[in-house]
């Protein structure tokens, strides 16, 4: 039963996720929380881990959740389900690509979807910062995550002003790791 739930849950993510992994995070969140596979905090951590490991976020999350809930078969079922729609679409699109992309209506739809995806990604990022930026612990507000986010944002955007292309993503990840160690200790 759990294998079917994993398969159909992540098949839904694979079918309706449009705009890449960041645009799919709200859908992944909805599916994972509705089935009770992860709680909000664990999902946030897994998004961070999935982003920092090689591979697409959706595949990494599906593999992790599947493995957590049903072992190796669960990870295989969830991973296959999340990539199956894309695989089928790519096979179909390779045949139709030449003529369909020249269609002005298709181009208009794709141009209209770009700002929507930017808005969804921005809203997801802001939502994650607000939800996880301020932690209440022992009746005290701890704003370390928010402060770290602001500092790393300043470094990123400041580097773009000083240097064409800005700071290297690898260097930014290393700085984030060092900032996390400094803020939270080992």
Summarize this, please?
The chain has 186 residues and is mostly helical. The chain has helices at 2-16, 21-35, 40-52, 57-100, 104-133, 144-162, 169-184, and strands at residues 135-137, 140-142. It has a domain at 2-104.
> What does the average pLDDT come to?
85
Radius of gyration: 19 Å
Helix tally? 7
N-to-C terminal Cα separation, in Å?
A: 40 Å
Low-confidence stretches: none
Q: Which class best fits the helix and strand makeup?
A: mainly alpha
Q: Largest beta sheet: what is the strand line-up?
A: 1-2
Describe the structure.
The chain has a two-stranded antiparallel sheet with strand order 1-2. The mean pLDDT is 85. It is mainly α. The protein is globular and about 50 Å long. The protein is built from seven helices and two strands. The chain has a domain at 2-104. It is 82% helix and 3% strand.
